[in-house]
Design brief:
This protein has seven helices and two strands; from the N terminus they run E-H-E-H-H-H-H-H-H. It has 279 residues and is mainly α. Residues 1-22, 241-279 are annotated as: Disordered.
Length: 279
């Protein structure tokens, strides 16, 4: 600046064209008030320098963003990739919002500084341009993260639909299994009931068969005893007949009409009739 009532300051029309096209174009204007307080300008420049220093934080954020995207691609579980995508989207959204606010503040401060005729160094303008390009890349990454978030939301919706369908299938299969179980339980109860009836019938028939076998054994024993008595009676009859034939008196008197055989000869016939009636 020059001394006196009027001071000349250098002014660049815009910091961004200076960063893009080369050295800043210097112009001079006559400052009407030489006693202008430049504290506000210095504060604006300090804020500008502080915001530029935060560019490194933005670079680190972009590096973390790339690392998280790499982890998302190699992640095994879908849940971790979804959480990573949501985290990336949130972090990128916050960072972009913060740097948009900072860019707006810096542009306002630069406009105020330009109104005071302050020279913006080319390096500072270049760093501001770099920060704007980084902001554009961050916005692009944010859009990619938002697209990925939308895709994951769609996949989540499809997964929820598939889960509901699977739950319906499981419920249907569970009902079918329950129906089959009840049917098998009914068949088992019927089989057990019929088996008990068959067991009772077999037990009854077995008892009846045992009773019939006992009766047959008794009849067989009675038949044996009867046959023994018949044989004994026949033997007694044959013996009596032989004795009668051997007796001379019996042979002489057999032709007389007054002959009557002894009573003991009637025993064998009576024994045979008793055996026959008993059998």
């Amino acid at each position: 600046m020059s001394s006196g009532n009027s001071a000349f300051v250098d002014l660049t029309p815009s910091p961004r064209p200076a960063a893009r096209d080369g050295p800043a174009i210097v112009s001079t204007i006559d400052q009407a008030d030489p006693a202008l307080d430049l504290n506000e300008v210095r504060a604006s420049l300090n804020a500008l320098q502080h915001a530029i220093d935060k560019t490194e934080a933005l670079r680190e954020l972009r590096s973390d963003h790339g690392f998280l995207r790499l982890r998302e691609r190699v992640s095994i579980t879908p849940a971790s990739s979804k959480l990573a995508a949501f985290g990336i989207a949130n972090c990128s959204s916050e960072a972009v919002s913060e740097f948009q606010d900072q860019i707006s503040t810096l542009e306002a401060q630069l406009a105020a500084a330009s109104s005071f005729g302050v020279i913006v160094p080319p390096d500072t303008a270049r760093r501001i341009a770099d920060m704007e390009s980084q902001l554009a890349r961050s916005q692009s990454d944010l859009q990619v993260a938002r697209d990925r978030q939308s895709a994951l939301a769609s996949e989540l919706c499809e997964s929820a639909t598939s889960h509901k369908t699977a739950q319906a299938d499981v419920a249907r299969l569970g009902a079918a299994v329950e129906h089959k179980t009840r049917h098998l339980r009914t068949l088992r109860d019927n089989y057990e009931r019929r088996l008990r009836v068959a067991d009772n019938t077999i037990a009854t028939h077995s008892a009846e068969l045992d009773r019939l076998q006992d009766r047959v054994s008794t009849v067989d024993r009675d038949l044996v005893q009867a046959s023994q008595r018949v044989r004994a009676a026949i033997s007694q009859r044959d013996q009596a007949r032989a004795e009668r034939i051997a007796t001379p008196e019996g042979s002489c008197l057999s032709g007389s009409r007054y002959y009557r055989p002894a009573k003991k000869t009637d025993y064998p016939s009576r024994e045979i009739s008793e055996v026959a009636s008993g059998s």
